Amino acid sequence: MSTYTLPSQVQVLPATPQLKGLMTIIRSRDTPRADFIFYADRVIRLLVEEGLNHLPVMSKTVETPTGAKYEGLDFEGRICGVSIMRAGEAMEQGLRECCRSVRIGKILIQRDEETHQPKLFYAKLPKDIDSRYVLLLDPMLATGGSAMQAVQVLLDNNVREDRIIFLNLIASKEGIDAFVERFPKIKIVAGEIDEDLNEAKYIIPGVGDFGCRYFGTD
Ligand code: URA
């Protein structure tokens, strides 16, 4: 058995029976699209809720209807989402459900036909992104190539590296290692970690092509 030490920057969702059941549905090749969307959305919601735990907080005391005090907390710092198109767009709704009227930027990176390297095609980001915490959205962390390029775009727009929280449903060990080596201050929150990549750089066992299954394209 291989021993793999998960970098401390990576937090994996607790492997509860709920999560395992959801993952079993979305990983099955026999799952119809409507179910894939429904159950992927449930995992996305868990990821967003966990990602929000990495935002700074300050203490806040409120009075309850009983007249007693409750020592609670309040979130400090503003956030925005940035989805890596196209699959990352599937995670936008889950973020909106947790953070009403959240600003969401988009980055499109595709492999250059000639160099085979990931290339930036489009980026539209909130103007004040440099003062925000960024929840970076991409369901699959495979080689990490596009994700690293997307982070570079954020850094070029003066986002602080330690203010980026990267959310994915499934991350490969190879992708995690490459990503963490280049951007050690970024926190990754992943649903599950998978062992391998195949020759076409799909995650194994993975879910196949997430974007095609979610958006119904081939
Ligand atoms: N993107 C996908 O949709 N699936 C993978 O396995 C890897 C990247």
From TrEMBL:
InterPro entries: PRTase-like, PRTase_dom. Pathway: Pyrimidine metabolism; UMP biosynthesis via salvage pathway; UMP from uracil: step 1/1. The keyword Mitochondrion does not apply. Keywords: Allosteric enzyme, Glycosyltransferase, GTP-binding, Nucleotide-binding, Transferase. The keyword Glycosyltransferase applies. It comes from the Eukaryota. CDD domains: PRTases_typeI. Belongs to the UPRTase family. This is uracil phosphoribosyltransferase.
